[in-house]
Amino acid sequence: CAQVATNVVEQKHQVSRLKRSRALGSRAFRGSTVWFTGLSGAGKTSIAFALEAYLVSKGIPAYGLDGDNIRTGLNKNLGFSKEDREENVRRVAEVAKLFADSGVVCLCSFVSPFAEDREVARRIHTDSHLPFFEVFIDTPLEVCEQRDTKGLYKKAREGSIKGFTGITQEYERPEAPELIVQTVDDSIEESTMRVIRLLESEGIIP
Ligand code: PPS
Ligand code: MG
User: What is each CA distance from 4 to 1, 7, 8, 29, 107, in whole angstroms?
Assistant: First the structure.
């Protein structure tokens, strides 16, 4: 068992969430996390980054954390085994919690194929009284594989990528996400609008 820190005591901030939000230019505290899950090629990054652009254009601070990007920095020591994906999601959720606490709408786009790991991400937020919205980008495997924007499905079928989600590793569909987005007949703009409607109905967007 790895060494863990003991004798650690929580240190309380002097600044409230509302005060911090005001310094960011927001009248109200809007800090929250939108967690996009779905197969590779489902549209997570496109929708999350379109939403980021929309929020920022409305003067709402937002920041997108994306699997491909995080895996070249913070999580560059992690691969795609079940254990590494669990740690990937856990670390990102902890970072997202900090963004949300700071008053930013944090947009996380990660395959996050395991329900247990997504539940951990949710708990990390709800334990700190921060809104967490799980958005399932429900694009069928056949469609993702047809698109194959990065050529990864081809490689996975040929056997040169091991443990590829949907091909040689499982994807556990969310059972009770806050929103399901079906991208097949919709444009990126239309899919993004569905998430915007959710955030409006939840009071994150005024
Ligand atoms: S996870 O499951 O949440 O830890 O994955 P994530 O951090 O989102 O990284 C997924 C991106 O990495 C590329 N890639 C793979 N995806 C799935 N399975 C395997 N084995 C794999 N190997 C590399 C791929 O570009 C994923 O990005 P998206 O945007 O989902 O296609
Ligand atoms: Mg992506």
Answer: 9, 10, 10, 34, 29
